[in-house]
Every structure is written in structure tokens, then in C-alpha cells.
């Protein structure tokens, strides 16, 4: 039985990403064609779900990251490991600079798309914003 190669997996992944992108673009274009009430309901529901999930993932990530930092510090204090904090800080600074450079280079296109969507679908956007804050508050 032959196992799929990396090329097959890569093609499958690209197909899945393309399908998801096409679905999202179609859904977004269809939202503007619905009534204001439907846009408000869809916006509120999707905003609430997004806010709720964001808070759950955020809490999980914070606990994981915080716990690992605490464990590293305890291990360092007990002498199990020796941490070169200067080297870590230099690496973090380099990574942060790289992320900022990439983010500022690409953000206008993304931001303009978001603003265009918000202008064209104001009811959905208002519902999403309210639902997002309800989702954050309910988690």
C-alpha cells in the first residue's frame, strides 16, 4: 500500500485552503445581499461565537505560556537548567522586529479590506461587534 507523498499532502492542503477561501468569500459577498435584520442577527451570533472562542483560547494560551515560564524559572532556581536570558532577550527582540516589519508592510491591504467590508455591511458589523463583546463577557 503506497503512502501519499509530501507533494500529495501539499496539494491536498492547498485545495482545502482554496476551498475554504472560496467559501468565506462567497459567504461574505452573500451577507450584503440579505436584509438588515438578518445581517444584525448573523453579525451578533458570529461575533458572540468569535468572542467566546477568543477568550477560551486566550485563557488556555495564557495558562500554558505562564505555566511554562514559571516551570522554567523554578528549574533554573533549583539548578536543573541554566538559562542565558541575554541570548533569549536578543532573539525575542529580533523576532519582534521581524514581525513588526512584516505586519506594517502588509497591514494596509488587510485593513482596507476590513474597512470596505464594514462600510458595505454596517448592520452585520454592528451586530458582530456587540456579539463579540457579549462572547468575551460570557466566557
TrEMBL record:
Pfam families on file: FUN14 (PF04930)
Subcellular location: Mitochondrion outer membrane
UniProt entry keywords in alphabetical sequence: Membrane, Transmembrane, Transmembrane helix
Keyword Transmembrane: yes
InterPro entries according to UniProt: FUN14
GO cellular component, one term: mitochondrial outer membrane
Listed GO biological process terms: autophagy of mitochondrion
Annotated membrane topology: Multi-pass membrane protein
Family, per entry: Belongs to the FUN14 family.
Full protein name: FUN14 domain-containing protein 1-like isoform X2
Gene source species: Trichoplusia ni (Cabbage looper)
Lineage, broadest ranks: Eukaryota, Metazoa, Ecdysozoa, Arthropoda, Hexapoda
